[in-house]
Amino acid sequence: MGGDHGVSVVVPGAIEGARTFDVALRLVGDPALITPVLDSIDTSNLDVEILPASDVIGMDEHPAQAVRRKPQSSIVVALRAVKDGAADAAVSAGNSGAMMAGSLMILGRIPGIERPAIASYMPSARSRTLVLDLGAVTDPKPLNLVQFALMGKVYAERVLERSDPTIGLLSNGEEPTKGNQLVQQVYPLLVQTSGIRFHGNVEGKDVAMGTVDIVVTDGFTGNVVLKTAEGVATMLTDILREELTNSLPRRVAAFLLRPAFRAVRQRLDYAEIGGAPLLGIDGTVIIAHGRSNERAICNAVGVARRSAEQQLIEGIRSALEEGRAATEAAVGAETV
Prior knowledge:
Layout: H1 7-21, E1 25-29, H2 31-39, E2 48-52, H3 63-69, H4 74-83, E3 89-92, H5 96-107, E4 117-123, E5 128-132, H6 142-158, E6 166-170, H7 181-191, E7 197-202, H8 204-209, E8 214-216, H9 219-244, H10 248-256, H11 258-268, E9 275-279, E10 284-288, H12 294-309, H13 312-322, H14 324-335
Parallel strand pairs: 1-2, 3-10, 5-8, 6-7, 6-8
Antiparallel strand pairs: 4-5, 4-9, 9-10
């Protein structure tokens, strides 16, 4: 029911995801709005049902208040289905704050995790760079970033199939002495965290260059990096289109190079990523972009399936145990 486009895009995108990734689908929301769209789509050989939800949380509503005030909203009903075991994962392109607040209230955190993190990968020169947090915790403590690193490692290994991934701490310089107070507190903690391969500080350019597999940062900075990257990708696409169509010779050249331009656009397109897992929650929750198109919703379903299959929660529990010394040191540093 959420996102910029609602059922007209979410339903067909989800159906394509169910077919592509071979999953059973429960469409949560108002049957009167979902059914007409569903009837216009071929759902043969698919396990698709409508899970009624009589209310919707708007994009402009206060997340926690809306979750409490609207127990029959589609977000709450979907998360309850995960809690009750009726679903293996919940996907939403709606109010991301409500999705996070509802996840905390209904599913709770994995024991030992203090704050969850939104994690997603971004295009880079090498391949893709996993970045977290992207907006869940805008003012974290050192312990939170240590746990983000541990959770990111598990996600990169199990879902993105990156063996022994390298981890960088986002800063305004590569030297250990650079960064704000938070970065300088976190750096030595990551150095002593067992079970991870800490590269050291990385700069903003390293996200795009793919210097490391995982970049850890606070949610405020991470969200700015994400939105800036999306804007730059759109700008580059628009400039290329404009420059390659302003004369006949260039239009001919663009026609010949169309497969290459299509491949570049696909590498930069957020829709190919699909959705971002909310790591640290005791259940699989995928947050899709508010302006998701059908392709993005389809791929978000794929992220949900891979995340649920790879037993992320169990992996995060094990990673926490392995990195216990660093997390205890972080807690000790915060009490000084």
